[in-house]
Design brief:
This protein is α/β, with parallel strands linked by helices and 171 residues long. The chain has a single domain, classed as Rossmann fold (3-Layer(aba) Sandwich). The protein is built from five helices and six strands; from the N terminus they run βαβαβαβαβαβ. The chain has a six-stranded parallel β-sheet, sandwiched between helices. Helix 1 packs across helix 2 and helix 4 runs parallel beside helix 5. The longest helix has 21 residues.
């Protein structure tokens, strides 16, 4: 079945086995699994658009994987679905540079709220937007870990979306 778009959802660093240490071999294995899943969607199912929620951890990793794949498949596009204008304002400098670099290379940036205030509902609305805008969801998710990723997976299931789960705890 053809797939036109795919969104990513995933855990933040605190819920990943390697936390912030992306030099950990398990993180490298995760990146490889994400790449294989995304590349299969491109090659086998015609996926052209990927959406990242741009949160620290899995979302940022997934966005960078798509940008790397774009070097091989220039027809694909990355959309960054950002909760609001101040989303990354308080991030550490290095992570803010990484985030900004991704935004600079993305084909589209969708701000869920144009407001410059923190509102938890913006995160939920971002997740709903991503699922509603996608044919398939790739979730970097460990079953039973509560939070935004779990809520997004539940919403995707309720919307009868195809979900590819990559469990970081099983790597």
């Amino acid at each position: 079945m053809p797939v036109k778009s795919c969104c990513f959802t995933g855990h933040r660093p605190k819920a990943l086995p390697w936390k912030n240490d992306e030099n950990d071999l398990r993180c490298a294995a995760l990146k490889s699994k994400i790449r294989i899943a995304a590349e299969n969607l491109i090659v086998e199912r015609g996926c052209e658009k990927f959406i990242s929620g741009m949160a620290r951890g899995a979302d940022i990793i997934c966005a960078e994987v798509v940008l790397a794949l774009k070097n091989i498949y220039p027809h694909i596009d990355l959309e960054c679905a950002v909760p609001n204008r101040i989303f990354a304002k308080s991030w550490p400098e290095a992570e803010l540079r990484r985030y900004t670099s991704i935004l600079d290379r993305a084909g589209n940036i969708k701000f869920i709220s144009e407001k410059e205030v923190y509102n938890i509902r913006d995160f939920m609305r971002r997740n709903i937007y991503m699922v509603d805008s996608s044919d398939i969801v790739i979730a970097v998710y460990t079953e039973g870990k509560s939070g935004g990723t779990e809520n997004t997976v539940k919403y995707a299931k309720a919307q009868n979306k195809e979900i590819i789960i990559i469990d970081p705890d099983a790597i």
